[in-house]
Amino acid sequence: MPMIDSHSAMRPTLILGGTTEGNRLAAALAQAGLPAVHSFAGRTEAPRAQPVPVRTGGFGGVDGLVRYLRAAGIGRVIDATHPFAAQMSGNAVAACAAAGVPLLALERPAWVAGPGDDWRMVPDLGTAVAALPATPARIFLAIGRQHLAAFAARPGHRYLVRLVDPPREALPLPGCTVEVARGPFDMAGDRDLMIRHRIDGLVTRNAGGTGAVAKLLAARALGLPVIMIARPRLSARAVVATLDEALRWLHADLGV
Ligand code: NAP
Question: How far is the CA of 222 from the centre of ligand 1 (A)?
Fold first, then answer.
């Protein structure tokens, strides 16, 4: 029987969230009666209700996160942020090392092209912009509003943009068409959307997971090309792909 450090076991787990995985992990910890704090960047106006205490907004870089970990008595961190939230994930690696707090990343596997897919893999956003067709086309940008400005450099195309919240100010991509919708999406709905807007091709990032894969299945069904932006490279850290694995790691850290 392992010795249980009850002081450490009572320390809350900090979940760096903003994803379906973060929401599921928070629900699992609440159900198990384990203390947790779920942290959001505060980008979404109406995040889903949470079964554990929530904190919102940046920590103030690595130093701010180190201060927070100490002040809140955090026992361990599970980074369940989006695979493209590279800044937050890098900060978590550095801050946990500095504060001596165990860190695990819960990261969904990347999507992989299958038969019938027509993907062009690119390493970053700039290369995705450069990879757009030379002649005017209707492009579905499934990339998030903070990355739209890069496409203003290619004004010859018609862009469809899907956003979680209605834009409150002009988007940095003049003339784009906006579709406001919150996932998860399904293949039939995304196929209809692309047909309705007579889409010629997609640009997206390799987010992975099931909630946003519908657009890729729809593109495959319609024979449309996809410009796929690869994930950013991150510092070395322990990574698991599933909620069960994260819970096993958590229980091992708790000694129960
Ligand atoms: P990012 O570029 O890696 O982070 C920028 C800064 O935002 C971080 O340095 C941190 O500020 C703050 N931040 C990010 N995630 C946070 C969190 N969970 N709790 C507290 N502060 C956080 O992140 P991003 O790509 O803008 O994503 C922001 C949030 O949206 C993340 O929670 C992510 O999981 C979620 N999300 C992102 C995407 C995406 O495509 N990137 C998609 C879906 C959901 P300080 O340095 O001040 O601590």
Answer: 33
Q: Among residues 91, 130, 153, 116, which one has the least CA distance to residue 229?
A: 130
Express each pLDDT in 165-200 by its tens digit: 899 899 999 999 999 998 889 999 999 999 999 999
Q: Is 84 in the pocket of ligand 1 (CB under 6 A)?
A: yes
Q: Omega of the bond prior to 83 within 30 degrees of 0, cis?
A: no
Ordered by where they begin, the domains of the chain are 13-109+233-254 (3.40.50.720), 119-229 (3.40.50.720)
- Which tens digits make up the pLDDT trace of 206-222? 999 888 899 999 999 99
Q: Of the residues 38, 87, 235, which should be mutated to test ligand 1's pocket, given the most ligand atoms within 8 Å of the CB?
A: 87
Would the CA dihedral through 169, 171, 174, 177 be positive or negative?
negative
- Cβ partners under 8 Å of residue 154, min gap 6: 129, 132
| Predicted TM-score (pTM) above 0.70 | yes
Among candidate residues 252, 218, 255, 227, the one with its CA nearest the CA of residue 238: 252
User: What number is the average pLDDT over the span 225-237?
Assistant: 93
Q: How far is the CA of 99 from the centre of ligand 1 (A)?
A: 20
Distance 101 CA to ligand 1 centre (A): 20
Say if ligand 1 is within 6 A of residue 86 CB.
yes
